[in-house]
Amino acid sequence: MLRILGCTTLVLAVVALAPSAASGRAVKQSLRPTGVDPNAQGVAMASIHAKRNRGKFRVSGRNLKPGTTYGISVAGVRIGTLTTRATGSGAARFSSPQHGSDQFLGVDPRGKKVEVSDDQGEDVLENEMPDDGDDQGGVQCCLPDDDDGAECEETSADECTAKGGTNMGTGTCFPNPCSTATPAPDIRCCLPDDDGPECEEESAAECSAAGGVNMSAGSCDPNPCAPTPPGIVTCCVADHEGDGGEGDDAGEPQPGPAECEQLTTADCAAEGGTVSSAASCEPNPCVSSPSGAFLD
Number of helices (H) and strands (E), helices first, in the chain? Predict the structure, then answer.
């Protein structure tokens, strides 16, 4: 009898420790310092429940500059920020559906590069998140569902075809790439591009199917995908060297047009520049009108 009870206890313990398919599997990765701040340390952890279209992502750092806001990027798109305490440590939490003070999570971080950048846009910590081994080689398969329009399953391409599903390409079911029965409002989607992520207003399903990053509902103006890091402003700096033209007095060069640079507020002031309200330097917002005022 005691032997039977002992075996039963052992089985229950193994079941309790085994990961549940419904609960998802957490992946964890240490973030490496890039050399900008050699003492910086960080960890990123993601727990994705693709079947339920739920996910959590946490990035923590320490030995960073105290009281500083850092940008958090996944696959080259800034998805949020991390602000350090007086001790130089801090954490950023993301979730979908969004809970409490968490920031919105619109991308599956697994298998993608995570970066923590300072207010100069320099990466301080970075590393690539590991893939969930169970999902490698799978495709996003949208299967008909009477209740929700279409259900996503991660299967092989052959299994998807055999089930009469629609192959949406390689990837995971988070966020859900399948169209739902109830149309949802368009979201801001950051899509990879050689010149930097582009923003498109489209459905969450279309965004996921295209491999984009869901930045939640809103407008693409201003562009939420712009790589400008936190703390950086558009600064108009006067060109004191001139353009070689003639001034009012013979031999005196006319000052050239003001140049646009992305700087911190402090650096802009140190350069004798003027902060522009423009979101970027394209087109140049520092070109002056006949009255001498900047055209921003």
Answer: 4, 18
